[in-house]
Amino acid sequence: MYFDDLPVGYSFETGARTLDLAGITGFAGTWDPQPFHVDAEAAAASPYGGIIASGFHTLLTAFTLTLEADIWNEASMGSPGMDEIRWRQPVRPGDNLRVRAEVVDANASASRPDRGRTTIRYDVLNQEDALVMQFTATHILRRNPEKHAP
Amino acid sequence: MYFDDLPVGYSFETGARTLDLAGITGFAGTWDPQPFHVDAEAAAASPYGGIIASGFHTLLTAFTLTLEADIWNEASMGSPGMDEIRWRQPVRPGDNLRVRAEVVDANASASRPDRGRTTIRYDVLNQEDALVMQFTATHILRRNPEKHAP
Q1: How far apart are CA A61 and CA A42, in angstroms?
Q2: Which has the closest alpha carbon to A87: B36, B150, B79?
Q3: CA A28, CA B37: separation in Å to the nearest integer?
Q4: How many Cβ pairs closer than 8 A exist between chain A and B?
Q5: How far is it, in rounded angstroms, from Cα B133 to Cα B62?
Q6: Is A1 helix (H, G, I), strand (E, B) or coil?
Q7: Res B132 pLDDT > 90
Q8: Domain boundaries, chain B
Q9: Residue B11's pLDDT band (boundaries 50, 70, 90)?
Q10: Selection from A118, A123, A11, A102 nearest residue A58 by Cα
């Protein structure tokens, strides 16, 4: 799909993925080794009461689920940024995550007729439909080259 | 350091880390396999003219450099979120990244006397001092338990 196929209000849902304990501690061991992500004993004594996933692990799981849903990635020319990343609720071993997303802004480029900017709000849900994370990302997306030459 | 040791205006700089080609394509292969992160030929034909690091790789490198700088992590009780993530300039193989950070907001909790919220602006710089990425993160930090009992 191209920029023009994703108007404001377009929504989609991704497949789901379960985060297991080994995946959670493995990711955090490399990228976010805070005790409540990697150390069962320290996590039990923390306000979380047990190991929770790094928020970055949740974010990247949501992002890869989105790529796999094959919505905007063929048209992607990169991203200038993200906003309002919120971790709403801990993600624990065994939680099954999926993403529900909606286009909230779409602007064709005035200076570059081959592309546009699409902003999408992403909600990450667990197996109980509880919202565990939200974020908004802006994507630079190609327009259909048959209709909008560079 | 505790919440009270990091007032508004407190700044610090981290150590540095070089992202090499194998690290960039390895990270992206798992978490962000867009062609311009993993495929040399496709990347050469893209607007970037060659492989660039996933923005998430830059973000996580900055985050781990920050943990290693040992500023707030001993006091960390987690994070409610991040804002204004901006990728300003591509990161390419061989780039050497470091982080310059400044506390921009600090609020002791009214309801929970053992903690506060500290917001930090992070600038990620390369070996030429060019700003490649910025983000703001809020951290829940413990207060000194000898002075502020739970």
Answers
A1: 25
A2: B79
A3: 22
A4: 68
A5: 9
A6: coil
A7: yes
A8: 3-142
A9: very high
A10: A123
**pLDDT for res A150:** 65
ipTM (interface pTM): 0.95
Query: Could you tell me what percent of chain B has a pLDDT over 70?
Result: 99
The strand pairing partners of A122, in sequence order, are A101, A135
How far, in whole angstroms, is CA B130 from its chain's centroid?
16
Residue with tokens 């064709």: A108
Region B41-58: mean pLDDT is 95
Q: Which residues in chain A have Cβ-Cβ distances shorter than 8 Å to B31? A: 60, 63-64
The candidate with the shortest Cα–Cα distance to B139, out of B121, B123, B117, is: B117
- Is the separation of the CB atoms in B132 and B54 below 8 Å? no
Whether B124 contacts B134, CB under 8 Å: yes
The CATH number for B3-142, chosen from 3.30.1370.110, 1.10.472.10, 3.10.129.10, 3.10.20.90, is 3.10.129.10
Contact A32 B78 (CB under 8 A): no
Task: Answer yes or no: do A79 and B36 touch at CB < 8 A.
Answer: no
E-strand stretches of B19-109: 81-87, 96-108
Chain A CB contacts of B73 below 8 Å:
34
Residue A19 tokens, joined = 């985060």
Q: Regarding predicted confidence, which is higher, A148 or A1?
A: A1
What gap in Å lies between CA A22 and CA A90, rounded to an integer? Answer: 17
CB atoms inside a 10 Å sphere around CB A82: 25
State yes or no: pLDDT of B117 exceeds 90.
yes
Which pLDDT band, with edges at 50, 70 and 90, does A145 fall under?
confident
